[in-house]
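Session log. Operator J.P. requested a structure for one protein chain; no other inputs attached. Running the standard single-chain path with C-alpha cell output.
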Amino acid sequence: MTDGASGVLLAVETRDGAIRETSKELFGLGRTLAGELGGPLGAVVLGSGVEAAAREAAALGADRVLVADAPELAAFTVDAYAKALDAAIDATQPRIVLLAGTTAGRDLAPFLAMRREAACLVDCVRLAWQDGAWVGTRPVYQGKLLTEVRAPGDGLTFATIHAGAVAAPEPDPGRISETTPLPLQFAPGEIRVTVTDLVQAPAGPTNLEQAEVVVVGGRGLGEAANFRLAEELAEVLGGAVGATRAVTDLGWRPHYEQVGQTGKTIAPKLYIGLGVSGAVQHTVGIRGSETIVAINRDPDAPIFKMADFGVVGDVHEIAPKLAAKLRAVRGA
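Structure written below.
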C-alpha cells in the first residue's frame, strides 16, 4: 500500500450472475467507513458473466466498480480469487478491504493478509474507524461474549463481516459509477484446485435470513412435538420458524433452522422467541431484529434484557392464545 492510500474496497461475491446477499450487506458499512476516511468506496465484482452484478454494485453505492469476469472465477478457488482481489487492491490502493464472512471471505482475508503482511480482523459484527485505528467487535467463546479487536490504521487491513450483522442499503437504479474491467490471465496449473461440482445444502422451505417475521423455539418448549406452537404462530404471521443451538443439538429441529453464532444471522422486522433463554450464542444472531418479543416462564431469562416486549408465563398456554387472537384479527 502506498502512502497515498485511501478509501475502502469491497470484495463482492456473486452467484448465478447476481450479487450474493452477504456481499450486498457490505455496501452500507463500506459507504459509512469511506465517508469517515474521506476516500472513495470501491468494489471488485468477482465471478463469471457478472455484467448485471457490476451495475448492481453501482446502484448499491460503489464509486468505482472493478469487474473481475473470467471463467476461472465461476466457482470459488483461493488461487483464482486471490489473484483477482490482489489486482483490485493494486489498482485502488485502499486502506481497508471488506469481505463477507462466507467460506470464500474467511479463506481469502487471512491468506492475502499474510501475503501482504497486513492486519486482519475476522467475523466482525461492528467495525469503526477510531483515532486512526480500526476497531472491530466480534463474538468469542462460541458467541458467549463480545470483544473488541484493533488494527493500526497506518497499513492495509482486511476485515470479514459477520453475515446479517449490518443491513444492506436500498439500491438506487439510476446511480452510475466508474466501471473498469480488471484484466486477468491465468497460467496453466496456476489454479491448483479444480471444482467439479457444487451441491446446495438443505435450506428449508423458507429463507430465514430474508424473512420479515421469525418465530424461534428454544429448549423451553420441552420436546420436539411442541414446535407445533412455533409453526402455528409463524403460519399466522406469514413468517419462518427458527431454532436455538440447544434445540438442534437435541435433534428436535434441522440445523438449517438454527439461529445464532454457529447458525443463521437474521434481521427480521419481528422476532418472537418461545421458550428461548437468550444465551449469547443465540442473541448475537438476532441483534439486527427491529422488534423482539420474548415469552418465557423464567423472569430472569437473559432474553428479556434485549426484548422490546417480554411476557413472563407458560409458553404452552400463551402461544396458542396469541396465535388464535392473531388469526381472528387477521381474518377480520
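Operator note: The mean pLDDT is 92.
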